[in-house]
Design a protein that fits this description.
The structure holds two protein chains of two kinds.
Chain A lengths: L3 H10 L1 H22 L1 E2 L10 E2 L3 H7 L2 H32 L6 H13 L2 H11 L6 H8 L14 H11 L2 H11 L4 H9 L4 H12 L1 H17 L2 H6 L11 H11 L3 H29 L9
Antiparallel strand pairs in A: 1-2
Helix pairs in contact in A: 2-15, 3-15, 4-8, 4-9, 4-12, 4-14, 5-9, 9-12, 12-15, 14-15
Chain B lengths: L9 H28 L3 H4 L12 H9 L2 H32 L5 H11 L5 H13 L7 H4 L11 H12 L3 H9 L4 H12 L1 H17 L2 H6 L8 H7 L8 H21 L1 H15 L1
Helix pairs in contact in B: 1-14, 3-14, 4-8, 4-11, 9-10
Classes of the chains: A mainly alpha, B mainly alpha.
Chain lengths: ~300, ~280
């Protein structure tokens, strides 16, 4: 079975993916790179694509809305990523307890992650409604006058973070599978040495799940840059651009203003930012990520 | 190793309390949405959590006001071929990577993994322009065709998932079939694909969820109302004069239901899939 002739048949089997790679990934990437250095209104034909050098990038770096969208995206990532991690780890540690009913809780916590983003958004538009939404009513029981949430530029982004917290089931499950990989004897040894619950958590659990934390950190940052549906449906970037996420701004430039060159340049900046962050987290990981079986000390 | 209730100590009670409180936070918004979907318009603005009388006709009104079945039909027109294309070509490519030793395989496989990291925004605009040039915008084809090239978004995750599983199938099985005179295609169809049922089901489920939830794709490619999918259609009816909140919530529930039902039937695939994806990318 190892003759080269039959092995070449492998190309035939991966042909769909290879074609797809060329047509839907590599080709578009090259085209997009060309576009980012060009000016083109889509209405006229391909022949009217005009090379403009770095003009798009220069314009972007003078564009206040570009900075606004970066700010929104980074604030969202900087607040939500740590918040979601802490909450997810807490719930995952609790769900990892050996007792009855954990399976049931696991289902409940995971449920929001399977609901379509549009449905979740519609639901929360209702929940955040200042007059008849349940959130402000619940706050009212404690004597708190809730804000106008999605209609208030100071609270709209916060509202989206609160909503995101509702859907952390995904992250919880990832932590749970990380926790289940922690060897039981470590805890037993810790218990014998007289380590209490908190000591065991900080000295055993936390170091053991740093690879998972690391993964979630990268995904969280990338997620902030991919954030779209909720912002589009619930606030469409408003009020006063307070929820103008990067991806939403990119969409507006490409598909509302049809400024494809500008939008392509934006997409490459996004790519580079994501790449930089991913590399940064990977580089720094050797300082704080503990991989089991590592000799490093 | 089950802990019975009387052995519960203080910290375990506390843990249980937190878990219950958390579950309430998850469930109350959902229950409130269901209850809103059964209220009268006047009650929607009122204070009561539950409706006085459950108005089930909100649902039949909603599916009429929002052309629900038309949107459902559109969603299915996209969904069915995408699922077929993704599962079929995903399995083909996975077999190619799992069982053949062709030149450049390692490099190609690395490229496959790398495409998982590529943000979709980079290819979004040129792909749209490509479909626009060939006159396929405002049709379902841009949302369907990529599925026949390994799967949507390059299909890297699907191919990886199936390939990992196929590598675990004993080689003796396909080798003995080969000795019996079966060719590669027959081995794929009769042995490898049927034995890979588990990852193929997982991929089908993820694909279903992906299409059912997809919003940006339909938003970009479908311009006319009668082409809308459910996800896109629902959002477009937000705040329209003839659609009340109770009806909108009824439609929201209707869109959630298939996803939730699928989740409850096939939870183990969801949970395994999430764990695998973190293992792959992490």
């Amino acid at each position: 079975m190892n003759n080269t002739k039959s092995d070449r048949a492998g190309y035939l089997f991966i042909l769909p993916w290879l074609l797809g790679l060329v047509i839907f990934t590599l080709g578009p990437m090259i085209f997009s790179l060309i576009l980012s250095f060009s000016k083109w209104d889509v209405i006229t034909g391909v022949e009217s694509i005009q090379y403009v050098g770095l003009d798009n990038f220069k314009a972007i770096f003078h564009d206040p809305l570009f900075y606004q969208s970066l700010k929104v995206t980074f604030i969202f990532a900087l607040v939500s990523v740590p918040l979601f991690q802490v909450a997810s780890i807490l719930i995952a540690v609790l769900l990892n307890m050996r007792s009855r009913g954990m399976k049931f809780f696991r289902l409940i916590y995971f449920m929001p992650s399977v609901i379509p983003a549009v449905a979740t958004s519609m639901m929360w538009v209702m929940i955040f409604n200042p007059e008849y939404g349940i959130l402000n009513e619940a706050l009212g029981w404690f004597g708190i006058q809730g804000p106008a949430w999605l209609q208030d530029p100071n609270y709209a982004l916060g509202a989206l973070i609160v909503m995101g917290l509702w859907g952390i089931g995904n992250t919880i499950i990832i932590y749970l599978s990380g926790l289940q990989g922690v060897p039981e004897d470590l805890y037993e040894a810790g218990e014998l040495d007289g380590a209490g619950i908190f000591r065991r958590f900080f000295s055993i659990t936390l170091p053991m799940i740093t690879p998972t934390i690391f993964f979630n950190l990268i995904m969280g940052i990338i997620g902030g840059f991919q954030y779209f549906t909720q912002a589009f449906v619930m606030t469409n970037g408003g009020p006063l651009n307070s929820t103008l996420f990067y991806n939403l701004y990119l969409y507006n430039k490409a598909f509302i203003e049809f400024d494809m060159g500008y939008a392509s340049a934006l997409s490459w900046i996004l790519f580079i930012i994501i790449l930089l962050f991913t590399l940064l987290v990977i580089r720094s990981s050797s300082f704080w990520v503990y991989y089991q079986g590592d000799d490093r000390d | 190793m089950q802990t019975s209730l009387r052995k519960f100590n203080l910290s375990q009670w506390l843990a249980l309390l937190i878990l219950i409180a958390g579950s309430a936070i998850v469930l109350v918004p959902l229950l409130w949405t269901v209850s809103t979907s059964l209220k009268t318009p006047a009650e929607v603005f009122g204070d009561s959590f539950f409706p006085q009388k459950w108005i089930w006709s909100n649902y039949s009104d909603a599916v009429r006001a929002i052309p629900f079945f038309l949107f459902l039909r559109n969603t299915l027109i996209i969904l069915v071929p995408v699922m077929i294309g993704t599962v079929f070509t995903g399995a083909l490519c996975a077999y190619g990577f799992a069982r053949f030793n062709f030149r450049g395989k390692q490099t190609l496989f690395l490229i496959l993994l790398a495409t998982m990291m590529l943000p979709s925004q980079v290819t979004l605009i040129p792909t749209f322009l490509l479909f626009k040039q060939v006159g396929l915008t405002n049709s379902f084809l841009p949302l369907i065709l990529p599925a026949f090239f390994g799967g949507l978004g390059g299909g890297a995750f699907n191919i990886f998932l199936i390939r990992q599983f196929m590598r675990g199938i004993p080689r003796e099985l396909d080798e003995s079939a080969f000795v019996d005179g079966a060719n590669r295609w027959q081995i794929f169809i009769r042995i490898m694909a049927p034995l890979s049922k588990a990852p193929l089901i997982a991929v089908s489920i993820f694909t279903f969820m992906g299409v059912w939830n997809d919003f940006q794709g339909p938003l970009i490619y479908l311009n006319s109302n009668e082409k809308y999918t459910l996800a896109l259609g629902l959002s477009m009816f937000k705040g329209m004069y003839n659609v009340e909140w109770n009806m909108l919530m009824a439609a929201t529930i209707l869109i959630m239901l298939p996803a939730l039902i699928l989740f409850f039937i096939a939870q183990k695939y969801f949970i395994e899939g999430i764990s695998i994806s973190s293992a792959v990318k992490g």
